[in-house]
Amino acid sequence: MLDNLYQILSILLLAAVLWASLSIVYVSWKNGISPMPSSAPVRQAVAEEISRLSKKGVIVEAGSGWGTLALHVAKRCRGWRIVGIENSAVPLWVSRLIARLSRASVTFVRGDLYAYSYEEVELVLCYLYPGAMKRLSPIFQEQLKPGARIISVCFSLPGWQPDKIITCRDLYRTKIYVYDVKNSVIEK
Known about the structure:
Layout: H1 2-31, H2 40-51, E1 58-62, H3 68-76, E2 81-86, H4 89-102, E3 106-110, E4 123-126, H5 130-143, E5 149-153, E6 164-167, E7 175-180
Helix pairs in contact: 2-3
């Protein structure tokens, strides 16, 4: 009887792992990129940059993946309301679980980062790929208010002039692009 229970539990666990793996592969294929956690030096540099801002409000992490960046920012940068947008079920579930267990003040929502309304957002965090940045550029141009900020890890916004480029002290010398919407020169 106990052996049968272990077999059933083993099969259920294997099925859950297989489903999770296939889900991640499918959504990664659909998105053109897999969810990638940011490194500790990158998270620290982003949090330091956010801490320099006097204005508080809503931070949206577009494509929050496993939630590492949003969760780190929530712990280091008090006073912000943080929303992570993710369309992959497994990383979204993991980030929600970690947020709940760590009591972090981050809301992770399932959604399309290209359809999200950025009109009431003070700061957008991005750790995406060049194709996504190209697609988001006109959305940000249209929706973000003057004075809003964009912090992008690894990839710049095409046609935008960053106010600052930070080079991290990690293995890859990762670049972080910081934009102030009112100061960025946008090429048409």
